[in-house]
Write a structure and sequence with these properties.
By secondary structure, the chain is α+β, with helices and mostly antiparallel strands. It folds into three domains: 63 residues, Arc Repressor Mutant, subunit A; 62 residues, Orthogonal Bundle (Arc Repressor Mutant, subunit A), CATH 1.10.10.10; 45 residues. It is built from ten helices and five strands; from the N terminus they run H-H-H-E-E-H-H-E-H-H-E-E-H-H-H. The chain starts with a helix and ends with a helix. The relative contact order is 0.08.
Length: 193
């Protein structure tokens, strides 16, 4: 069995980035120098393909080439993000820079774990400001979602506006029903919102 194929297979199979030490242990290749050489060869071989062997802040992994990500991102949308992490990202997108203290007020203490995971994935970064941290999106966020953060923010704002309009209309109908039940005259603005 060729060592390079073994390293390649390990990177392909893992759902998370692997450090060189992890690869050494998994593949039973004892020399970190050899692991580094094999990774450099794989990185070079994959440089012009749709999949890349890349080193990130968390370790080595296989990723879709950044320029292709917008075309294929929808095929496996954010499968490794929990709903809590997605909500955290939405709040940061909408309020960037977002004080972590404000995020905690909205999501509670569980948000600390979401922030930690998202920072580890490289999607957000925290900048210390006074007694709290301001949360910012990274360029990795845009690569991950295959979209510029301004476009994502605009989509969120549009979704929020539609939801608010539906909620307002529902509330106006509810008020109109209550007024009709009480015998209070209903006016057009009450029904139309």
């Amino acid at each position: 069995m060729e060592k390079k194929q073994l390293v390649e297979a390990a990177l392909f199979m893992t759902p998370r980035p692997l450090k060189e030490e992890d690869l050494s242990r998994i593949t039973r290749i004892g020399s970190l120098g050899t692991i580094r050489e094999l990774l450099a060869e794989l990185e070079k071989e994959y440089a012009e393909r749709g999949i890349r062997v890349m080193k990130t802040g968390e370790g080595w992994e296989m990723q879709v080439a950044p320029q292709l990500l917008p075309s294929v991102a929808r095929l496996a949308p954010y499968s490794n993000l929990s709903e809590g992490c997605k909500r955290t990202l939405a709040l940061v997108v909408y309020n960037e820079p977002m004080p972590q203290a404000d995020l905690i007020k909205v999501q509670g203490n569980k948000a600390y774990a979401y922030v930690k995971k998202l920072a580890k994935m490289g999607l957000i970064r925290a900048e210390k400001v006074g007694r709290t941290k301001n949360l910012h999106l990274t360029s990795e966020f845009e690569a991950y979602f295959g979209e510029q953060k301004d476009n994502i923010k605009q989509q969120l704002e549009e979704q929020y506006a539609k939801k608010k309009a539906r909620d307002d209309k529902r509330e106006a109908k509810r008020r109109a029903k209550e007024q009709a039940a009480d015998g209070t005259p209903v006016t057009a603005p009450d029904v139309l919102g």
